[in-house]
């Protein structure tokens, strides 16, 4: 979860957004974290590099909880 938070904060900072302190499973990637399509693409690439998991392989994920399930299931 800490590595996921670090990756999301890197992406948010690169887009000129402030960092966040914590993640919750219920957080929506677009609504709560304000990630746009380009940022989601970047997140996909970074998570695949870090964890060797394509989080969008089986369809769109919308929450942190869905990402965690994918990472734990690898």
Textual characterization of the structure:
The protein has three helices and no strands. The chain has 74 residues and is an all-alpha fold. The protein is globular, with a radius of gyration of 11 Å.
Q: In short, what is this structure?
A:
Helices cover 50% and strands 0% of the residues. The protein has helices spanning 2-14, 37-51, 64-72.
Percent strand equals under 5%
Overall, the morphology is: globular
Main beta-sheet annotation: none
Mean pLDDT: 94
Structural class: mainly alpha
Instruction: Give the helices and strands as they follow along the chain.
Output: HHH
Low-confidence stretches: none
How much helix, percentage-wise, in residues? 40-55%
Radius of gyration based on Cα positions: 11 Å
> How many β-strand stretches?
0
Q: Determine the N-to-C terminus distance.
A: 15 Å
Number of helices: 3
């Amino acid at each position: 979860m800490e590595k996921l938070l670090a990756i999301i904060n890197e992406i948010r900072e690169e887009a000129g957004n402030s960092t966040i302190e914590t993640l919750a499973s219920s957080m929506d990637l677009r609504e709560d974290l304000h990630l746009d399509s380009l940022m989601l693409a970047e997140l996909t690439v970074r998570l695949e590099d870090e964890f060797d998991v394509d989080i969008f392989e089986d369809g769109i994920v919308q929450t942190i909880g869905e990402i965690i399930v994918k990472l734990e299931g690898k």
